[in-house]
Amino acid sequence: MRHGHEDLEPEHRPEAVKARLSQAPSASSMPDAVLGGIDGCVTTFAVVSGAFGAGFSPTVALVLGFANLLADGFSMAVSNYEASQAQQEHIDSVARRERHHIQLIPDGEREEIRQIFRAKGFEGELLETVVETLTNDHDVWVDTMLKEEHFLPPVGLNPLRAALTTFFAFIVVGAMPLLPYALPGLDTTTQFLASLVIAGAMFFGIGMLKSLVHEGPVLRSGIRTLLMGGAAAGLAFLSGHLAHALFGLG
Predict the structure, then answer these.
(1) How many CB atoms lie within 10 A of CB 82?
(2) Ordered alpha helix ranges (H), 180-217
């Protein structure tokens, strides 16, 4: 989505810029929500597809779907927690090491700042002013080294928030393809087709939402996510159908 000058001008006024930049840095939870939603929908619809392909009853599909939904959602949340925690611990470790280096060899660390900003085009007196300004405050100095030397954000995503976002997105979106199996009076084929439509809508909707947040091509992102989810479900269906043919399951 492109904005005109009239749309962008208010948020670039001095007071608006100051307010925005004064906020504490924080990582976005959108990647965790997208990951959890897509994986939850893939997980449950893959179970539904596999059960339908194998000829299992709707009750079996529903039980397996909910069991996988809770177990995989919890497992994914824990994994995301551990990954986010590991990232934050890595950032903290690098920051501690940089602070230690600043205490031991400040001139060497200033030279690193100098060369980093010389590579950006700063020269002469202006370069020395930049180096002096950045190294006057150790917090600013360390944050600069994190971003410019190690390509790390000063603050990672809160591990608990990452885990909870992933878990709830997984559960909410993943439960959608199971809804037709909880409704009485529908035959097996109708339940599967309804689940197929719901899962397709979830995949497409998540893709569109992700694109809207990041201002990308909405339709293309929706179709791409739909195709990836459909491919996973197709593999599950073929696996169930093959198991039924080979082993007589169902």
Answers:
(1) 13
(2) 188-213
Question: How far, in whole angstroms, is CA 188 from its chain's centroid?
Answer: 34
- Report which DSSP code applies to 122: -
> Is the pTM for the entire model greater than 0.90?
no
Closest CA to 89 of 97, 100, 77: 97
Residue that the structure tokens 């959108």 belong to? 30
Place of tokens 């002013």: 129
Short-list 142, 118, 140, CA closest to 128: 118
Please tell me the distance from the alpha carbon of residue 84 to that of residue 148, in angstroms, as a whole number: 21
The C-alpha R_g of the chain, in whole angstroms, comes to 25
Query: Taking each helix axis from N to C terminus, what angle separates 58-104 and 188-213, rounded to the nearest 10 degrees?
Result: 20
What is the spatial distance between Cα 239 and Cα 69, in angstroms, rounded to a whole number?
19
Q: Which residue has the higher pLDDT, 226 or 112?
A: 112
Q: SS3 for 80?
A: helix
Among residues 163, 160, 157, 159, which one has the least CA distance to residue 76?
Answer: 163
Distances (CA, A) of 213 to 22, 27, 35, 90, 210: 22, 14, 14, 28, 5
> Tens digits of per-residue pLDDT, 5-53?
566 677 767 776 667 656 655 567 778 888 888 888 888 888 888 788 7
